[in-house]
Amino acid sequence: MSIFSSRRSHRDPALAARFPGLRGLEIAAAAAALFLVFAACFPTLLAPFDPLAINPADAFQAPSAAHWFGTDESGRDIYSRVVHGARPSLLIGAAATAIGLGLALLLGTAAGLGGRWLDFGIGRILEVLFALPGLLLALVFIAIAGPGITTSVVAVGLSTAPGYARIIRGQIAQVRSSPMVEAAVVLGRSPARVLGRHILPNALAPVFVLGTLGLGQAVVWASSLSFLGLGAPPPAAEWGAMLAAGRTYLGTAWWMTLFPGLAIVLAAACSTVLGRALQRRAVSR
Amino acid sequence: MNSNNEAVLRLENLNVAFNGEPAVRGVSLEIPAGECLALVGESGSGKSVTARSLIGLAGTGAKVSADRLELSGRNLATLSQRAWRHVRGRRIGFILQDALVSLDPLRTIGREIDDALRLGSEYSRRDRARRVLSLLEDVGLDNPAQRAGQRSGELSGGMRQRALIASAIALDPELVIADEPTTALDATVQAQILDLLAGLRERGSAMLLISHDLAVVESVADRVAVMTDGRIVESGPAAQVLGSPSHDYTRKLLRAVPADHARGTRLSASPAPAGQAAAHVSGQAAAAGVSGASEAPAGPAAVRQRPLPVRVPAGRPPAGTPVLQAAGLTKSFRTPDKKPFTAVDGVSFELSAGETLGLVGESGSGKTTAARLVLGLAEPDGGEVRLFGRPWSGLPERERRSRRTLIGAVYQDPLSSFDPRLTVGQLLADALSGGRSLNAKAHAADTARLLDLVGLPARFTARGPRTLSGGQRQRVAIARALAPKPKIVICDEPASALDVSVQAQILDLLDDLQREFGLSYLFISHDLGVVRHMSDRVAVMQRGRIVEQGPAEQLFASPQHAYTRQLLAAAVHPPRT
């Protein structure tokens, strides 16, 4: 897989043997990812308070035994809000990545398999999309479609699609012209069978690795949109929105921004470490 | 030969191990000035590791020990890395197999050689510039002033190798080590490079030539050492070792060289090559599995054990029934700079049932394009391919597909022709079921029979092709090609990437299978010896055209075309046995 081969040089087994910590990091990332997924599925099991319950008397409390991560301007428990924030953040990230990959799969496959003109046309469209920075593309879409969770999911998906599409197109074009496909044609296989059995599975395996890597990015972008007030509406427990709310009080109540921020970093880091681990496995296969 | 008896290189009891796994065991060598010692062996024999140890580059994780390692009386065994740098390039020149990767593609060859010269501080800038030109002239590059300004990508393979040799001998090293210096080159270029190497000895350097190719060795070496499994099993004057070898392994190597063995004689020494011990399924069962020639009296297991001094004509349809006809094939491409390039130019040939047509030519002569046209992987611009008398080229792929089973293909690099996700069993099941099934279990019996046919045990079904050796992979590729019971097999350099003894086994296998099933082969190779051994008729290709074709023996005995004569003259003559 061409996109990985360049990494082989500094990610070889000898290196892994010399730095056993890499292995430990992967296990830690997997555990953290499991924890986040658990929080997203069963937030009430982990969170001691209602994330939306207002209690003005407890406003701006620093982290303590009762409120691990402190409380916000309305006295809501930050820890509970961070736990409850896992679900929208991860859902938005996963849905956006799925939309991005799906769209990229259509465009990339069409470009990789279609004739010269289709490849040319799709290539130019992707270049136009590339010309706009990803987040700007998402903002443009939201400006047209209006803010909200659904729009921000679609927006993030749209803005990640061109990158994936490029890679899928390259992979498919490469596998398509490989001796293996030629051998299948010589054996008399129909185009549909060659595509389904040989081209797609071999071309897409690395794309799923990229999807894992991209998940973290999607979470960050979704949070960014919420931070700008374009995603989840204010009272909702969502990491980006919490960051935005805490920003005003950064000087007095640092915990309001630190903990949601750490959650975002954790999610993104997990996806990166796990994606890399998958990548290494794909290379060594 | 130089009368100077002082040994330039003296190596005693060299041992190299990687991770406790010995790669070189107790190798001792001695090379006097002006003499060439050839170290011969197959891949994995430890010859390259030996050579690299001599320049202190055995590799990371290598444990190297030697009782004695002396260059002109100076001990090298205890050198530090820093001291080694003074020896490399200056006192020992190293020539690698692939000049394309050994030369920096971004630098001109003049600068590469200049770099080598700069190691010796005695040259001024102007001296160096002059010396670069004289070196390029010494290695036989025309127009040195212009060549010095070119980068490796602008030069042909032979010119690159010459440039690399120039940089290796720039400082007149006492010892020149050449590791497979001609393996990547065409026959005519190979002959020129070998002449050049032979000439280097006259400068008084000692030379260590590493090669797997006995023919190459004989034309240059004064003495030969044969290596296998990390040990030197036989050494002595070239004429003696190659002429009357005393060790079994040397004999096996010599026997495996196909050139001087007539069509139909076996190349591999043992009747059942490695991996076939388990293949003792009865002949009848195997024959029933893939029945091509019903007349075949016995299965392949039996065939394999029978010594076959003569070709068996039985089972061959009457001569003159062409199975494949190519008439006036033409195919052109556009080069990256938009110039039209005619790869195949008016090529016509016929292949009859049970016959092998050898297609021989140097790289770029259009052999592979011709094969792609025949396989229906590319459409000819002009001319026509007919398969069993019916049109084959010019049809939509949909109409060709049902007849694809008639014609199979075996490639030079089998691994890249396998889907990396599939096991051997799945690959064969896919081929057996016409692509409908990947279930190796459902086709277990047929798969085992196919594997037996190519001399592999049935347990290989669970293996991934990556875990197999080169020869085993090619066997799997052959089994897959035979699964749909083709009548014609296009073999494109099927054994070129293999060691000579493995090559011998694969060629023998192809021969047996042809006899067994009455197959017709279009056998493509750049190796005259291999083509001569395999073919009934031979067509010689040059620049997209067939310049000569005819019965193999006749063509080799009295070549008519100048290019054929040139090719034959360039082919280094294999040692006689």
TrEMBL record, chain A:
Gene3D superfamilies: MetI-like. It is found in: Cell membrane. It comes from the Bacteria. The keyword Disulfide bond does not apply. It is a multi-pass membrane protein. InterPro entries: BP-dependent_transpt_permease, MetI-like, MetI-like_sf. Keywords: Cell membrane, Membrane, Transmembrane, Transmembrane helix, Transport. PROSITE patterns: ABC_TM1 (PS50928). Residues 86-275 form the ABC transmembrane type-1 domain. Pfam families: BPD_transp_1. The chain crosses the membrane at residues 21-46, 90-113, 125-145, 151-168, 203-232, 252-275. Belongs to the binding-protein-dependent transport system permease family. This is ABC transporter permease. It comes from Arthrobacter mangrovi.
UniProtKB/TrEMBL annotation, chain B:
Keywords: ATP-binding, Cell membrane, Membrane, Nucleotide-binding, Transport. It is found in: Cell membrane. Residues 9-254, 324-568 form the ABC transporter domain. Belongs to the ABC transporter superfamily. This is ABC transporter ATP-binding protein. Pfam families: ABC_tran, oligo_HPY. PROSITE patterns: ABC_TRANSPORTER_1, ABC_TRANSPORTER_2. InterPro entries: AAA+_ATPase, ABC_Ni/Peptide_Import, ABC_transporter-like_ATP-bd, ABC_transporter-like_CS, Oligopep_ABC_C, P-loop_NTPase. It is a peripheral membrane protein. GO terms for molecular function: ATP binding. Its main location: membrane. It comes from the Bacteria. SUPFAM superfamilies: P-loop containing nucleoside triphosphate hydrolases.
